[in-house]
Amino acid sequence: MTLIGKTRIEAFLAAVGKQCQPASTLFLLGGGALELLGGARPTIDLDYVGNDLQPSGLQRLMIQVANEMQIELEAVPIAEFVPVPANARKRAILVGEFGNLTVYIFDPYTIALSKLDRGFDTDIEDVLFLLRNQLITVEQLTRFVDTAVSQANRFDLDATAMYRHLEIVRQSL
Q1: Strand order across the beta sheet in which 101-105 lies
Q2: Contact 165, 114 (CB under 8 A)
Q3: Secondary structure class of 104 (helix, strand, coil)
Q4: 105-150 pLDDT tens trace
Q5: How many CB atoms lie within 10 A of CB 106?
């Protein structure tokens, strides 16, 4: 497993942007997204909003380029894992234009919710990164956690674990 950092991610995006259809859009999640936001921890894969059961033309191209560059790529149907907060797309962060490809970081609150749900040490570090860089606030994240927990049974979320992970984040600030 090869770690990928910002330079390789940007090279991948540039290669995809050269070959994709004009006005293509990509939303990134996970460690790769945080790496592009200035995170210091390289990642093992590049997660993006998508469905690997019904790949689009852009996804097929991304898979081809990722295979050529030996980058682990993962489609994440995020709305199936956590309740995506209202207005999530409005909170997306523009990374930039890579040829025909416009790249965004998906809503940082949705990213934080997914990380609080899983709760690995690296996930807690990622939520702390989002907070320390003022990409999210504890108050708003707490409101979104409350909303997510109210729908926990629909998303197979562990409410107790999410609150425990949120408390770990609070204590670490």
Answers
A1: 73-76, 46-49, 24-29, 101-105, 93-98
A2: no
A3: strand
A4: 999 999 999 999 999 999 999 999 999 999 999 999 999 999 999 9
A5: 25
Neighbours of 152 (CB within 10 A): 17
- 114-151: buried (b, 16+ CB within 10 Å) or exposed (e) per residue? bbbbbbeeebbbbbbbbbeeebbeeeebeebbeebbee
Count of beta carbons in the 10 Å neighbourhood of residue 95:
20
Distance CA 131, CA 147 (A): 19
3-class state of residue 24 by DSSP: strand
CB 36 within 8 A of CB 5: no
CB–CB of 103/13 below 8 Å? yes
Q: Tell me the per-residue pLDDT of 82-104, one tens digit each, with 9 for 90 and over.
A: 999 999 999 999 999 999 999 99
Contacts of 98 (CB under 8 A, 6+ apart): 10, 13, 14, 16, 17
Q: Domain segments of the chain: what residues? A: 6-107, 110-172
